[in-house]
Amino acid sequence: ATSASFPPFTRLPHEMAAAESFLAFNPAARPGPAAASRRRYRGPRNRKKGWKRWSGPEAQLGREIGDFLEDVGLQERAAGGLISEQIFGITPNYSPSKIFRIIFGFFFFCSICAHQTPNGRKEKRRRQFWEKKAEKGIFPREERKLRARLNREGDPKKSPKSQKPPELGRFCDPLSDPLDAPLAGQDPWFLQQTKKMPVQRPPRLQVKPSPLPPVEVIGQGGSYNPPFQDHQVWGGFGGSWGGIGGPGGVLRGFWGVLGEFWGVLKGFEGGQVQAGHSAAPGPVPAALWAGSGVTRGHSVVTPGHSQDNDKARSRLVTLQHQALFQLRSLRRSLRFRDLELRRRRLLRERRRKILETAPKRLGRQRWGLGFWDLGFGPEGSVLRDRFKSLQRRNLIEPRARARSGTGKKSKFGGKKQKFGAKSENLGGKSPNSGGKKFKFG
Amino acid sequence: MGGLEKKKYERGAATNYITRNRARKKLQLSLPDFRRLCILKGIYPHEPKHKKKVNKGSTAPRTFYLLKDIKFLLHEPIVNKFREYKVFVRKLRKAYGKSEWGTVERLKDNKPTYKLDHIVKERYPTFIDALRDLDDALSMCFLFSTFPRTGKCHVQTIQLCRRLAVEFQNYVIASRSLRKVFLSIKGIYYQAEVLGQPITWITPYAFAHDHPTDVDYRVMATFTEFYTTLLGFVNFRLYQSLNLVYPPKIDSQAEDELKPAEGKEYAMDSESYLEKLSGLSASLARAVAPTHEDEVEMDEFPVEGETAELMDAKKKEQEALEKHKKLFEGLRFFLNREVPREPLAFVIRCFGGQVSWDKSLCIGATYEATDPSITHHIIDRPHLDKQVVGRYYLQPQWVFDSVNAKLCLPVADYFPGVLLPPHLSPFVTEKEGDYVPPEKLKLLALQRGENPGAGYEESEEEEEEEEEEEEEGDNDKEEEEDESEKEEEMKLQKMEEQKTQSTQSNKVTAGKVRVEDKQRLEQEQQSEEKRLAIMMMKKREKYLYKKIMFGKKRKIREANKLAEKRKAHDAALKEQKKKKKKARQA
C-alpha cells in the first residue's frame, strides 16, 4: 500500500544507499574499512541461527538507520554541517532531483518508522482520545487510581505517618543499612513495592474457601461399641442414626404437631384480620351438606321431640353451624395459604442465598458427592479422611487417584516374562538368568 | 460502525482467573513447588462461575486460581528459596556425578533452607485466628506422629509431630480443658476448649495403619510442615498463658517420683525426656511457683442488659464446668497392660485423676498394681484371677462414658465381662422429633439427678421388664398417632350407633344427668373443624398440605422404625440370655 502511494521513480532506501548516484558520503561508497564493514559478521558459521543473528526487515531498517546516522556524522565532519541545511541555506550545489531524493528519503524513513510500530496508528488514536478526555477531566483507570492514592495520602486521617508513635530517642543500630533510614515511616505501598516491607495479606484471603468444619465427627454409628455388625443393622436406614430429641421427643404425636400448627394459625387469626381478603363467599346451600356425615354430632334428636317446628329449628341451627364452619374454614384456608406462601418464599430466598454464597466444589463432581461417597464411613484410615476433608473444603484440588509406579512395573514385568519364556525355550533356565544367557549367546 | 473490535476473553471473568499451568510459569516454579507454595501461603484454587467463559470456550478440566492471588504470591520471599533449592539440587547432582566429594560437602553445608515464621504471622494476625485453625493442625500432627518410620516421610517430621502433640496434650492436661471424647472405629475424637475456642481433633489408634494409595503424601507432608510450625508457636503461647516453662519440663517433685528406685535407667535423662513427657503422668514445672491463695471470689458486676436470671444461669454453668473439670479428682487409676494406655492416661489426667501402669509397659509409672490406694482398675479382659478387694475393676469405656456424661456413671454396667452399654457420641446435637436411643434417655435422666427406674441397681431382669413396659407404652402411643384419624371415625360411628339405639328403643327410662365432658366436646369440635378445613381447601392447597403432613409422618415413621428395630434387637438379646440361663441351669 505504501509503495503504491509513491511516484514510480522512487526506490527503496537501501537501493538508494547502494545507488552510485546517491550521495558519495554513503559509507558504502567509501573505500577502505567502511566498505568491509558492510559484510556483517554473522557469527560462527557452523552454529545454528540464534537470536543474536540480527536479520529481517527490522534489522535491515536498523542497519540503514545506523548508516544514516553515520552519514550524518560524516557530513558534519566533512562539510561542516548537514548538507540539507546547506542546500536550503547557502550553497545549492545539487540538482533539485537530488535534493528531492534527500528530503524524500528522510520522510520516507520517518513514515516507515511510524508504520513499523505495532499498532502505531491505533495507539496514536488512543492517545488522542485520552488527550481529549483529559481536557474534560476524565482520565484512564490507571491514572485515576494513582490520583486516588495521592489524595488518600493527603488525607491526614489515613496517612501512616500520623499513626506512627513519636520517636522516644534516637537509637542507632550499627547493623542496620544506613540507606534504609530514609525509608523508615514511609508509605507502606512504596515500601512494599521496593521490597522493604512484606506485602500485606489481602483480607479476602483470610476467608476460608468453605464453611465446612475441619473435623467432622461421625455419628454414633461409628463407635466400636456396640459391635460393627449391629451398626450395619441399625445404620442400614441411610445413616441418619444420629438425631437425639429431647426426652420423649421421638414419640410426639402426629396430631400433636398438627394441633400446634392449628394453634399457631389461631393465634395468627386472632392477631390480624386482613382487609384485603373479602373473598369469603356466602353460605353454601344446605343441600350441599345434607348428604355428608358432618352434621351427625350436632343435631340433638330425642324421641320426645318430633314436631316439625323443632325439626326446622334444629335444622336451621345446624345450617348456621355449617355456614359458620365453612366461613371459618375458608378464612383459615386463606390464612394457611398466605402462611405457606410466605414460608416458601423465605425458604426460596434462603436457598438462593446459600447457593450464592457457598463456594462451588472444585472439579468435575461439583454437587453430586454425598457424605458417604467421600470415605467418611465409620471405618477407614484417618489419613484418607484428612485428605478427603481437605479436598472437600476446596483447600486442594480434587484429583483422581495418584498414579503409583505399578503401571510401569507391570510393563517391565511383562518384558521380563518374555525373556524368561524365551530362555525357557532355549534351555529351560530360570527367568532371572534368561537375559544374561541371551546376551552371552 | 467504527470503534475498536472487541476481542473475546480479554475482559470480564476471563481476566480474573489464571490456570494453574500459567500461574506456575509466571512464578517460574515446578508443579510440586507451586503446590507447596500454595499450601504454605494458603492460596486455594477457585471454581469460576462460568468455567467455559474463563477457559476460552473449552470445557477441559482445569484448575483455576485468582490472578490477584498469584500476583500476591509473586512477592513471597520463599519463591526465591525454592529456586535456590532447585539450583542446589542440580549442583549437588553434578558434584556427585563427578565424584567431587569436597564440593558435595561444601554444597551440603550451604544447603538453602527456608522458614515459615513470617507466613504463620501473616496468615494468623491474631492468636485467636491461629486457635480457630488448630483443628487441622492437631489432627495432622497426631496422625503423622503415629506413622511408622519406614521412609514414607522424614523421620524428623514424625519426631517433631510427636513432640508437638505431646506438648499439646500436656497443656490440655494442665489447663483441664478437655470436654468431649468419642471413640470411633476410625480413631478417637477429642474436643477441648482452649481460651473459649472449641478445638476438635482426631487421633488414630496406634499401629492401625494401612497406607492408602489414593492419598498424595507430598501434599500431606507440606500441610504438616506448615502446621508443625503453627503448632510450635501456639504451644509456646499456650504454655506462657498458663505460666508453664516451655519447652515443657517435668515438675522437680514429680521427677523424683519418676526416678526408678533401683537406679537402673535404661536411657539417659536427655534421651528419655520426651518419653517421660509422653507418659502424661507427671505434672509440669511452672515458670513462677504457684502461690496457693485462698480462692478469692471475684466480685461480679452485672453487665448491662443482663438480667439476674441470665447471671444465675451463667453461674450455674460455670459451677457445672468446674465440677466437670474435677470429675476424677481424688481417684487413683491403674491401667492393665492390655488397655490402650495413652488415650486413657490422657483423659484421666485431664479430669484430675491419678494414673499409673505397669512399670514394664511404659516409662512414667508412678505406683504399682499392688498399691492399696488404687480405686479403679481398668482392665479389658473377661475376668481377672487375682482381684484385690477395695477397688473397682472396670472396662475402659467407663472412663470415656463418664467424661461425656459429666458424672461418674454407675459402675455396674462396666464390670469386666459384662455386655457394655453402647458408646454414645457426645458430639451429636439434640433435635426434636428424632430417634433417641433409650440409653441416652437414661443418661439424660441421670444427669438431671433422677434415678431412672428404681430397678437400676436391682436385678437385671426387673430392669428389663421395666424397659419392656416402657417400650410397650411407647408403642401404644405410636399406634395412637398412626391411627388417630381412624379412631376418631370410630368414635363418631359409636356415637351414631348410640343414637340409633336410643331412637330404636322407645322405652322411657329415668333421665340421667349427662356428664358433659367439656374437654371431649372441645376436641370433637376441633377435629370437626379440621376435617372441614381440609375439605374446603383448594386442590393445590390440599396437595401442599398433604405433602407437609406426609413429610412429618415420614419422619415419625422413621423414628418408629428405628425404635422397632431396637426392640427387635433387644428381644433377640433377651432370648439369647434366657437360653444361656436355661443352658446353665440344665
Automatic annotation (TrEMBL), chain A:
Any Gene Ontology CC annotation: nucleoplasm
One record GO biological process: rRNA processing
Cross-referenced InterPro entries: Nop53/GLTSCR2
Listed Basic residues bias regions: 37-52, 406-419
Molecular function terms, GO-annotated: 5S rRNA binding
Signal peptide location: none
Bias type Basic and acidic residues, positions: 141-158
Pfam families named among the record's database cross-references: Nop53
Function: May play a role in ribosome biogenesis.
Family indicated by similarity: Belongs to the NOP53 family.
Protein name: Ribosome biogenesis protein NOP53
Lineage: Eukaryota, Metazoa, Chordata, Craniata, Vertebrata
From TrEMBL, chain B:
Quaternary assembly: Component of the PeBoW complex, composed of BOP1, PES1 and WDR12. Within the PeBoW complex BOP1 interacts directly with PES1 and WDR12. The PeBoW complex also associates with the 66S pre-ribosome. Component of the PeBoW complex, composed of BOP1, PES1 and WDR12. The complex is held together by BOP1, which interacts with PES1 via its N-terminal domain and with WDR12 via a high-affinity interaction between the seven-bladed beta-propeller domains of the 2 proteins. The PeBoW complex associates with the 66S pre-ribosome. The PeBoW complex also associates with DDX27, PES1 interacts directly with DDX27. Interacts with IRS1 and UBTF. May interact with MAP1B.
Keywords per UniProt: Nucleus, Ribosome biogenesis, rRNA processing
Job of this protein: Component of the PeBoW complex, which is required for maturation of 28S and 5.8S ribosomal RNAs and formation of the 60S ribosome.
Subcellular location: Nucleus, Nucleolus; Nucleus, Nucleoplasm
Organism the protein comes from: Catharus ustulatus (Russet-backed thrush)
Record's protein name: Pescadillo homolog
Biased composition (Basic and acidic residues): 488-499, 513-528, 563-575
Gene: PES1
A GO term for molecular function: ribonucleoprotein complex binding
Main location: nucleus
InterPro entries assigned: BRCT_dom (IPR001357), BRCT_dom_sf (IPR036420), PES (IPR010613)
Domain (BRCT): residue spans on this chain: 323-416
Pfam families on file: BRCT_2 (PF16589), Pescadillo_N (PF06732)
Family: Belongs to the pescadillo family.
Region (Disordered): 448-528, 563-586
Compositionally biased region (Basic residues): 576-586
Gene Ontology annotations for the cellular component aspect, listed alphabetically: nucleoplasm; PeBoW complex; preribosome, large subunit precursor
Ranges annotated as biased composition (Acidic residues): 457-487
Domain of life: Eukaryota
Gene Ontology BP annotations: maturation of 5.8S rRNA from tricistronic rRNA transcript (SSU-rRNA, 5.8S rRNA, LSU-rRNA); maturation of LSU-rRNA from tricistronic rRNA transcript (SSU-rRNA, 5.8S rRNA, LSU-rRNA)
